[in-house]
């Protein structure tokens, strides 16, 4: 039997995205954003949701761009750090020991050490309530060669991305492959 938990922001898993932008002075900024995911395939788009109170909010609005940086498990501490301090007061990149790189396709930096990057141009914003949803058109995807499979496609077991459990406020790694999508269910 199912137990009602009420109306809550729970979805499992939730990706851990580190969203990077430049501030007014051109200083690189990074923020841990758990509310996000792919939202369109053509054009390729990804959505993130931020509160207006965050420092990153105005940075993205002003520059009309952001990057999504997918950290591997080995960067769990740095990823968490990006969500506990504000870029308004701290140089997060320097403190975390990570390297900002100027985006090639958009006016936003990315994190050199992270295995997968999505460079996004701001396409739409939607006021939802406490959060504003930013829809970004993916202008380029960058991936470390060591994170690619033999077909040149990002391999989740090589990337080892982090996921977030909202209700318990904990990070997890990814488990093993269960089967090929749009294939394992064909025998039913």
UniProtKB/TrEMBL annotation:
What SMART domains does UniProt report for this protein, alphabetically? Answer: Flavin_Reduct
Q: Does the keyword Flavoprotein apply?
A: yes
Q: InterPro entries per the record? A: Flavin_Rdtase-like_dom (IPR002563), Flavoredoxin (IPR052174), Split_barrel_FMN-bd (IPR012349)
Necessary cofactors: FMN
Q: Which SUPFAM superfamilies match?
A: FMN-binding split barrel
Taken from the record, one Pfam family name reads Flavin_Reduct
Going by the UniProt record, its keywords in alphabetical order are:
Flavoprotein
Domain (Flavin reductase like) ranges: 9-164
Membrane spanning segments where?
none
Kindly list the GO molecular function terms attached to this UniProt entry.
Answer: FMN binding; oxidoreductase activity, acting on the CH-NH group of donors, NAD or NADP as acceptor
Task: Look up the signal peptide feature and give its range.
Answer: none
Key word Phosphoprotein present = no
Q: What is the similarity comment for this entry? A: Belongs to the flavoredoxin family.
Name of the molecule in the record:
Flavoredoxin
